[in-house]
Write a structure and sequence with these properties.
This protein has a domain of about 30 residues. The protein is built from two helices and no strands.
Length: about 90
């Protein structure tokens, strides 16, 4: 069977990025593209455009619980630090 030839992509103005993703997902994606005889770059660009054109809702974080007021100091508590040295004559 003759190998398919693909037209060279125009890379002028292209940028490269590298992120680690789940290995099984990367393997599935590569196989998906290979089975269709299409490029990984083409499908990746299409998926990114589709996702950004139709984004899922932004997750809303739950409110933080209230911070309790600090406890008042105990009565008769000594001040922190060293006691003053007695004066020598």
């Amino acid at each position: 069977m003759a190998k398919r030839t693909r037209p060279r992509q125009n890379v002028a103005g292209a940028k490269q990025f590298n992120y680690e993703i789940d290995g099984a997902l990367a393997d599935r994606f590569r196989q998906f593209c290979r089975d269709r005889g299409e490029t990984i770059v083409g499908h990746l660009e299409m998926a990114l455009r589709r996702h950004m054109d139709n984004p899922p809702p932004v997750p809303v974080l739950p409110p933080l619980p209230p911070v309790p007021a600090p406890a008042p100091p105990a009565s008769g508590a000594k001040a922190r630090g060293r006691a003053p040295k007695p004066k020598s004559d």
